[in-house]
Structures are given as structure tokens and as C-alpha cells.
């Protein structure tokens, strides 16, 4: 019985785009000199992602998170993924003669998404210098009390509308991920494992 050889996936780049399609994170597995080239190629996937989302979603059924193979260009294949918060991820791998399974690509996206969630929900995360808390609303002084059935006066304090520390994906700044050592090391580690160097 002959042993099966596993061909490693050769990752070339990984990009995270905000819901407004601005770049939040670009990583080139082939070296920092290719980062701009990979950014432009993965940004070309935005139109395909938008089209795929429109075609696969209805008001009752949101689009699937894994968007599949978006396109092939030069010597790379580009795959897309959208999180529930509408962050878009684009992964490119080198085209090889081996068959690439969707389950493998989904596993990569899920592990990167898990890493992103771990980093962004860490309560001990050192906040970057670009983080600025929003002003909380002031207490309402002259609020009229509510009178109950037994003539008790009940003051209902106004529910604050401020989301002081609640940030959505549109509030994420690109330097938050770029300056996160844990996120960068995690991405590098995933790349090394899949490229057969780990």
C-alpha cells in the first residue's frame, strides 16, 4: 500500500476588508515587497464578492459566509468569506496541480475568523493610540417623575443611548490589527502550517 503525499496549500496573501470595502489588514505570505500587489489583486475581488452576496441572499436568508472561489488571476486563486458583521476576507493561494477542497479553504477562514474574534474580544487587550472612547450622555436632571397607582413617585432614569465601548466592524481601524503582535503571529503561524514549513 503506497503512502499518500499531502500537497500543502501555498498561501500567497490574506486581506480583511471592512463593510465599506476599505482595507483593514493586508498580509503577504510571499514577503512584504508583494504586499501592495496583493492588496490590489484582493481588492479586485470586491466586485465579485458584492455580486455573489446579492445573488445568494434574500431578505429571509442572508448570504452564506463562505463565498467560494471568486476568480483566478495570474498564478493565484482568490477565495472569499464574509463574517456575520460583514467583514470580508479574501485569501489567495498559489495555483497548483493538486485539487483544492472547499472544506480546506473554509477551515482556513474559520481559523482566521476565530483568531480575529479572540483578539478583538480580549478584555486585556492594550488599546491602540487611535482608540478614543465616545462621550457618555449626561444625566437628565429635570426629568418628570412617574406617579404609580398608590401615589408613589418613581423616577425612571433615561436609558443611555451611548455605545461608549461598543464598536461595530465599521469602527475598526486598520492599525489595530496591523499592530497586534498576537494577530500577526497567528496569521504567520497559519501560513507556515499550510505551506508545510511548520
TrEMBL record:
<dbReference type="InterPro" id="IPR011012">
    <property type="entry name" value="Longin-like_dom_sf"/>
</dbReference>
<dbReference type="InterPro" id="IPR006722">
    <property type="entry name" value="Sedlin"/>
</dbReference>
<dbReference type="GO" id="GO:0005737">
    <property type="term" value="C:cytoplasm"/>
</dbReference>
<dbReference type="Pfam" id="PF04628">
    <property type="entry name" value="Sedlin_N"/>
</dbReference>
<dbReference type="GO" id="GO:0006888">
    <property type="term" value="P:endoplasmic reticulum to Golgi vesicle-mediated transport"/>
</dbReference>
<protein>
    <recommendedName>
        <fullName>Sedlin</fullName>
    </recommendedName>
</protein>
Amino acid at each position: 500500500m503506497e503512502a499518500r503525499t499531502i500537497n500543502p496549500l501555498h498561501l500567497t496573501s490574506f486581506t480583511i476588508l471592512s463593510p465599506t470595502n476599505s482595507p483593514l489588514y493586508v498580509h503577504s505570505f510571499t514577503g512584504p515587497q508583494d504586499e501592495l500587489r496583493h492588496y490590489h489583486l484582493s481588492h479586485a475581488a470586491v466586485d465579485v464578492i458584492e455580486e455573489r452576496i446579492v445573488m445568494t441572499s434574500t431578505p429571509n436568508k442572508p448570504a452564506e459566509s463562505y463565498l467560494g472561489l471568486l476568480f483566478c488571476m495570474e498564478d493565484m486563486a482568490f477565495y472569499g468569506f464574509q463574517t456575520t458583521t460583514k467583514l470580508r476576507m479574501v485569501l489567495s493561494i498559489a495555483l497548483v496541480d493538486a485539487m483544492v477542497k472547499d472544506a480546506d479553504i473554509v477551515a482556513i477562514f474559520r481559523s482566521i475568523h476565530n483568531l480575529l474574534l479572540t483578539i478583538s474580544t480580549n478584555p486585556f487587550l492594550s488599546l491602540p493610540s487611535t482608540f478614543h472612547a465616545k462621550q457618555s450622555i449626561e444625566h437628565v436632571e429635570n426629568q418628570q417623575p412617574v406617579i404609580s397607582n398608590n401615589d408613589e413617585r418613581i423616577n425612571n432614569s433615561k436609558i443611555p443611548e451611548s455605545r461608549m465601548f461598543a464598536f461595530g466592524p465599521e469602527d475598526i481601524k486598520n492599525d489595530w490589527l496591523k499592530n497586534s503582535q498576537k494577530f500577526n503571529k497567528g496569521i504567520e503561524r497559519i501560513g507556515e502550517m499550510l505551506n508545510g514549513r511548520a
